[in-house]
Amino acid sequence: MGQFDPDCSAADHPRHQASQLDDESCSRAAAIFRAMGEPSRLRLLALLQAGEMCVTEIAEETADQISTVSQRLRLLRSERLVSHRRQGKHIYYSLTDEHVSQLISNALQHATEPQFAQISSRFLGEDAQMTDDVHKDHDHQHGPDCGHTAIGHGDHVDYLHDGHLHHQESDGTVVEHQLDVTAENPSQCTPDHQCNGHEPGHVHGPGCGHEAVPHGDHVDYLVDGHLHHPHGDHCDDHGKVQLP
Q: At residue 217, what are phi and psi to the nearest 5 degrees?
């Protein structure tokens, strides 16, 4: 037996009732956790636990640009974590239901437990810190003809830079984005996709000649305007990107 193989077998244990969860339900739940699994989006959700807020209120509270807040809210809405209503020229956002509030509370409470901090320091090191999505000490000015590939992202344009998707705010701040997982840019396996734009057998990865694009919780590679994702012996096609 291998080092981690148990000495027992399944027959040594009482039979447990099989889970009634289907693959689709698990996939939807995983998408919810991916949407929550970024510090700035989780912070926004926690902020809404106190009650509904207008987009401008959220931007002022988080010290973010309205365009950045709107981008985060779109993703959270797509996974039904937040809902909205319009009142005159204002758009108010709130958590969808009590289930969302409980998810946030439980996650934050678990993260602040002493034993969690001990585990984190053991795996990440004593000086490990969570990073936000603001790119520090970035002196390059992104824009048309800046030398980096422009990617249309919702209502704005980002730029590919060293494997990151950079968005230049009006005050010069550079925020790191990732493309959302959507119907147009899915994340599922597509084994029947016929790869074009590179030789058969090409292996995507650092230094492969194609630009890396953050997409949801993974990295794709830009090939002729499409997102390619290495998967076993084939490439998945994760859809087209907007090339302004």
A: -105, 20
- Within 10 A of 197 (CB to CB), how many other CB atoms are there? 14
Nearest CA to 209 out of 196, 220, 223 is that of 223
Picking from 178, 156, 136, 133, the residue whose alpha carbon sits closest to that of residue 70 is 156
pLDDT tens digits for 55-105?
999 999 988 888 888 888 988 998 899 999 999 888 999 999 999 999 998
Scanning the structure block, which residue is given the tokens 């981008």? 71
Read off φ and ψ for residue 92, nearest 5 degrees: -105, 135
The span from the CA of 210 to the CA of 60, in Å, is: 38
pTM for the model stands at 0.48
Q: How many angstroms separate the CA atoms of 39 and 175, rounded?
A: 13
Share of the chain above pLDDT 70, in %: 85
Asked if 243 contacts 201 with a C-beta cutoff of 8 angstroms, the reply is no
How far apart, in whole angstroms, are the C-alpha atoms of residue 229 and residue 236? 5
Rounded to a whole number, what is the largest CA-CA distance in the chain? 68
What is the residue whose two structure tokens read 């239901």? Answer: 97
Q: Structure tokens of 228?
A: 């390619």
Give pLDDT tens digits for 205-229.
888 889 999 888 788 999 999 999 8
Are residues 171 and 189 in contact, defined by beta-carbon separation less than 8 angstroms? no
